[in-house]
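Lecture notes, unit on protein representations.

Consider one protein chain, 345 amino acids long.
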Amino acid sequence: MNIRALICGCAGLELTNDEGAALRAISPWGLILFGRNIGTPEQVARLTATFREIVQRHDAPVLIDQEGGRVQRMKPPHWRAYPSANRLADLAQGAGMAEEDFIALNSRLMAHDLRQVGISVDCLPVLDVPVAGAHAVIGDRSYGHDAATVARRGLAAARGLMDQGVLPVMKHIPGHGRAEADSHLSLPVVRASHATLSGSDFASFAPARHLPLAMTAHIIFTALDDQRPATQSPIIVERIIRGEIGFDGLLMSDDISMKALSGSFAARAAAIFAAGVDVALHCNGDLGELREVASATPWLEGRARARAEAALAMIGAPKPFDPVEAAASCDEILAKANLRQHAVT
């Protein structure tokens, strides 16, 4: 079956007839959901099932950014409010269990929520290492302030997802933490030396090189390629992401409609694939843009298809898990942390 090397979004709570026709014609590899697509559990489950029926693949991945904190698409009252990665790390210190185990438990709860509605991939963990003076777009989404800590905690989060049968996506490779601008709005330029980047920004991703999926950063690193953002740079994809970091899983772009990228949508997509990225991501649900992106997107073939199949093969059955007990444990830890905070203030 022909599958397009593309993950797309949709406009609302249900797929329209026009969207269904476009998806059938384009045959994207996956679908990504945002807050505009989230209503009730029953509605989300219907949406994910409809997508898979349209593309005629029961294992077609459905993705979401469910990090916790300010990046959480599924929210109360139907789902738990999860702490940000930075807050989670603080809570773990007083959790009465190993830090990594607490972080993994939180991710398992998230994954349980996702599986219940047919979502199979969570764009987590954020392995970016924020530095002083950088833009706050990463900020509390990171697990710490040094590469070793971020990697250790991020891998625990990934383990929790996979234990519950949900694939993680590490982001934003090779690192967004030093950017002084938000790539949603403009193109960040990082002027640090290669040695500095290797010792910090890249170092948090290397221990996670075995994870199945990664998302690129729309950032220019002048020490490596002063003309093209990492997403569209064959130098960075081949020498840094595949070479220095050693990641050989499925590499997907960050959202192709972000303002960090320029040119027509077809030109953006063509540059992404020329750089060696496996799958393009288009998020906003605009059908005109999607069709243009698809026109420059190849079928998923060769090494890229093998990576995609290897990733999906890593989705296993959930290990034994009691979500009610896990939620109660997390709530108790959060309550104790809140009491300590009030006592101090």
